[in-house]
């Protein structure tokens, strides 16, 4: 859980450093590339609470096979959840799946 807080803090720091803007896929990859099995489970649990960024992180983890097994169908499903929250990065990544 401490790693999840640390990673979330890094995301906030990125947002502050670059100003308020939509996250780029590369920003999400910084988080996803650091995932372990445990932190992936934490992000997945966070996604179930309605967190706006978590479904994108979970989808990207499935897409890249980081912290979990690579699973295209799960990646698409999680990108769609993130898109339903209005995340434009999810739209971009979902488009790349087709």
Describe the structure.
This protein has 98 residues and is mainly alpha-helical. It has six helices and no strands. Helix 5 (72-84) packs antiparallel against helix 6. The mean pLDDT is 83.
Quick structural gist:
By secondary structure, the protein is mostly helical. 70% of the residues lie in helices and 0% in strands. It contains six helices and no strands.
Descriptive labels:
98 residues; mainly alpha; 70% helix; 6 helices
The run of helices and strands is HHHHHH
Unreliable residue runs: none
Q: On the 0-100 scale, what is the average pLDDT?
A: 83
Number of helices: 6
Give the N-terminus to C-terminus distance in angstroms: 34 Å
Helix content: over 70%
SS elements, strand count: 0
C-alpha Rg (nearest Å) = 12 Å
Structural class given helices, strands, pairing?
Answer: mainly alpha
Shape, principal axes of CA atoms: globular
Main β-sheet description: none
How large is the share of residues in beta strands?
under 5%
